[in-house]
Design goal:
The protein is an all-alpha fold. It has a single domain, classed as Orthogonal Bundle (Tetracycline Repressor, domain 2), CATH 1.10.357. Helix 2 runs parallel beside helix 8 and helix 2 runs parallel beside helix 14.
């Protein structure tokens, strides 16, 4: 149990709440309501397994950098509370679970799984050679609602699948935007280590401006999604709340004061994902 707790702490399992509501968005919009219980279960399992793979590989591959960074030096894999062997074992178990979930969800999810694994495993390397790593992370999380859509519809490349691509772009902008904010606290360390990130490359002030523009684009895409699907008023009410939360998030962080990044990163983004999910549920109930 000690090892399991340390593994869950290593991958920040509780932060699955960021992406899971967006996966459910793809699911309920594809089904125009709730699909069968088995589909809901396997989508949930697939999401948890995919995030476990991505986070554990990130911790494993970045462990030397984490050991040198005062902010991350107490992470379980660095401090010795979990062994490298255990971390790899947890990653392998998650991979097997994800393969099983993809198989259970249908032929197309299984065929698309290698591409998803490329993103899940490749993101951890991108910071070594490109400051666009934030967008790669956003795209990786953007696969969550797209994968859920595919699991329900069994298609992705028809005109009717436009909402899945909009959700992909929405999550890409959202995640990239707040990952840029989060990376601001490591700007000096990234420069010293030769790692690539937008705050380290362009400065914190420019990074925060870009993050704000990405979140503005996210809101524009959410509006488009609402009009494309002709969603009812609860969805647009959720958009107003989301916009207010994003404004508050950006007011919490300034170039000369990064002390409240954890509040902006962890709390507000959880509220955003849950707000949008409840807005969609309300819109579908009234449809």
């Amino acid at each position: 149990m000690t090892k399991i707790r340390a593994f869950l702490e290593m991958i920040k399992f509780e932060h699955t709440v960021f992406a899971l509501p967006f996966a459910y968005l793809g699911m309920v919009l594809a089904a125009d309501g709730l699909p069968d219980l088995a589909t809901v279960l396997w989508i949930t399992v697939a999401m948890a397994a995919a995030r476990t793979i991505a986070m554990s590989l990130n911790r494993i591959l970045d462990r030397d950098y984490d050991a040198r960074n005062p902010r991350t030096a107490r992470r379980p894999l660095v401090s010795g509370r979990i062994s490298l062997r255990t971390a790899w074992a947890g990653t392998l178990v998650a991979l097997l679970v994800l393969v099983l979930a993809a198989w259970a969800l249908g032929p197309l999810p299984l065929r698309l799984l290698p591409g998803a694994l490329l993103f899940l495993g490749g993101y951890a390397y991108t910071k070594r050679f490109t400051w666009a790593s934030h967008f790669i992370l956003g795209m990786t999380d953007g696969l969550a609602p797209m994968g859920a859509w595919v699991a329900v519809r069994g298609s992705l490349f028809t005109r009717a699948d436009l909402p899945a691509w909009l959700l992909f772009l929405i999550v890409t902008c959202w995640i990239a935007g707040f990952d840029i904010i989060y990376a601001c606290q490591d700007a000096d360390f990234d420069r010293e280590m030769g790692l690539h990130a937008i705050p380290a490359r362009f400065g914190i002030a420019a990074a925060l401006r870009l993050s704000a523009w990405l979140h503005l684009l996210m809101m524009g895409l959410l509006l488009v999604l609402g009009f494309v699907l002709d969603l009812r008023w609860p969805y647009f009410a959720a958009l107003l709340i989301t916009a207010a939360l994003l404004v508050h998030e950006h007011r919490l962080v300034r170039p000369d004061d990064l002390s409240r990044i954890d509040v902006a990163f962890f709390n507000i983004n959880s509220y955003i994902s849950l707000t949008l999910f409840l807005g969609v549920i309300g819109a579908l109930v009234l449809a």
